[in-house]
Amino acid sequence: MLNDIRKNKSFISIVNLIGRIFSFLPPNIITTISLIVVFFSGYYYYLGLAHIGAIILALSGFFDLVDGSVAKYTNRTTILGGFLDSTFDRIGDGIVLLGIGLSYDLTICFIIMIGAYLISYMRAKGEALGVKVMGIGIGERAERILIIFVFSFINLELGLYVLLIVVYITVLTRFYYISKNLTKT
């Protein structure tokens, strides 16, 4: 859903500008900075300071956007860079959910994390089998981060239940979509 914004011309212009501004840094260093920053987000969530955790999570998300825009702008996109980005995203997801879980509810965060990892795995496996999966479901990574961010300022415990529902609707949607497309081949 939010991935559709990437096709918007205004958004593309902003991303290109960001790529120019940060082009002095290697993209993989920016990816690593994003990972380091997300550890602080998880730590503040663990301390029960959801507002600070959310702001730091947004900063990490900004760096996660910047790495790709710098790579494209400087013509330094690599398979390794894509692999690092995906891997570090999964680590970051786990760190934030662990921090929230240790402060609020570890069981629900663990169940959410399994679903979030399934969403990522199903996309990778589905696409490896020839099924285009990006954009399928209501809870891709950007939506999950947005839910955590918004509910960090409203009621994070309620947000966890919203996130749980969104994650498993996405898992079921992807499972059905991929299964349906694989039976056609």
Describe what you observe in this structure.
With about 180 residues, this protein is mainly alpha-helical. The chain has a single domain, classed as CDP-alcohol phosphotransferase transmembrane (TM) domain (Four Helix Bundle (Hemerythrin (Met), subunit A), Up-down Bundle). The chain has seven helices and no strands. The two termini are about 25 Å apart. The model has no long low-confidence stretch (mean pLDDT about 95). One of its GO terms (cellular component) is membrane. GO terms for molecular function: phosphotransferase activity, for other substituted phosphate groups. One of its GO terms (biological process) is phospholipid biosynthetic process.
CATH architecture: Up-down Bundle
Helix amount: over 70%
From the alpha carbons, calculate the radius of gyration and give it in angstroms.
17 Å
Structural class by secondary-structure content: mainly alpha
- Overall form: globular
Main beta sheet, described? none
Low-confidence stretches: none
Which CATH class applies here? Mainly Alpha
Count of the separate structural domains: 1
Write the element-wise H/E pattern from the N-terminal end onward. HHHHHHH
* Strand segment tally: 0
Keywords: Membrane, Transferase, Transmembrane, Transmembrane helix
InterPro entries: CDP-OH_P_trans (IPR000462), CDP-OH_PTrfase_TM_dom (IPR043130)
Protein name: Archaetidylinositol phosphate synthase
Transmembrane segments: 21-40, 46-66, 95-119
Q: What's the quick description here?
A:
It contains seven helices and no strands. It has 185 residues and is mostly helical. The protein has one domain: Up-down Bundle (Four Helix Bundle (Hemerythrin (Met), subunit A)), CATH 1.20.120.1760.
